[in-house]
Amino acid sequence: MKIINVVGARPNFMKMAPIIEELNRFPGRFRHMLVHTGQHYSESMSASFFRDLGMPLPDINLEVGSGTHAEQTARVMVEFEKVCLKEKPDLVIVVGDVNSTMACTITAKKLGIRVAHVEAGLRSRDMAMPEEINRLCTDVLCDLLFTTDHFANENLAAEGIAPEKVHFVGNVMIDTLLKHRELAAGLGIVEKFGLKKKGYAAVTLHRPSNVDDPQVLGGILEALSEIARDVPVVFAMHPRTRKMVGEFGLGHLLNTGATPGGVWAVEPLGYLEFLCLNMHARMVVTDSGGLQEETTVLGVPCITVRQNTERPITCEVGSNLLAGSAKERILECGRDIIHGRVASGSVPEKWDGAAARRIVEVLLAEAPSAQRG
Ligand code: UD1
């Protein structure tokens, strides 16, 4: 079976790494190549992840870069179509919910190529979120849908997806976390930053709904400043967020110096460094999807700065607090955590480090009959 694996943006890399590793165990059954769309391209958003995760470098980089949604999606489609026409894969594997995920799915399907979606079935029911549109378009087209939890299975069933296409395999992002946990723990980033274990809040924010509106972003930064009176706050700042803080003149709410204090803005960290920061944090404040899952497994209380989540399992098992974006509610959640008023969580079914193995088992069963669909 000839497979094209697709990655595009930061959260894709740690999902694809264990799949590639597992495919490599069966060289007689799979030939596979890695296509990077180039949606993310900075050292800190892309290259550092390949190094940290020991991933093979992409065979092809489409170098699409940033742009409006239509520009970025269209560029991926035009360039990926050329690759598919030349390489004629039996299967394309896409992960997550970024623009590259949807663009490559549409392109491959229109060429009659089968597509597998890893992390299928997640739904926020929020159509203002570009990722929700990407998820819906991807799942309706895919031939194989690999899911992480029971909510995803139920969502796909409710949308009329044939049950034989859906495989509940667990969470590949957690495969990567468990593999690197020990290595990350020894990195000493906490000491390097002059912080104390379990004595700080780690923050990431990048969703347009939070960072593209001056009122919303200002309110969140004020809440973080309040939290910083109790515990130092380390904000690993996404390029989009940094740009908006500058445009809105909110820089006075940040500490951009070399040492912690207040809301301390640092560059986005690599995978291993952030994992180290995350596992030793007193709390994480984020609007990322992946971090809601990672904190769940690490047992770190998480405040999710969103009105909804496509990952309700992380709230169901108890470690994730869905706070919305309003200052007072974020603060209330922060205080609850500081005063120990949070339920201890548990780990969802099949988030056990073996999700990629289960995916490849399904592909092995498919391999003899792989046809262009
Ligand atoms: C994208 C994904 C989002 C994911 C996030 C993780 C979509 C619709 N969005 O959002 O789902 O959670 O990645 O980071 O696919 N930039 C750089 N260097 C880079 C990439 C981007 O400086 O390597 C800057 C550019 O100014 C760019 C901005 O960040 O305009 C936003 O990047 P973009 O890829 O459009 O969206 P993200 O916010 O990163």
How does this structure look, described?
This protein has 373 residues and is α/β, with parallel strands linked by helices. The chain is 46% helix and 15% strand. It is built from 16 helices and 13 strands. A seven-stranded parallel β-sheet has the order 3-2-1-4-5-6-7, with helices on both faces. β12 (302-304), α14 and β13 form a beta-alpha-beta unit. α1 (10-23) packs parallel to α2 (43-53) and α1 (10-23) packs across α7 (172-185). The chain starts with a strand and ends in a 7-residue tail after the last helix. Residues 369-373 have low confidence and may be disordered. Residues 9-11, 39-42, 45-46, 66, 97-99, 130-131, 206, 238-240, 243 line the site of uridine-diphosphate-N-acetylglucosamine (UD1).
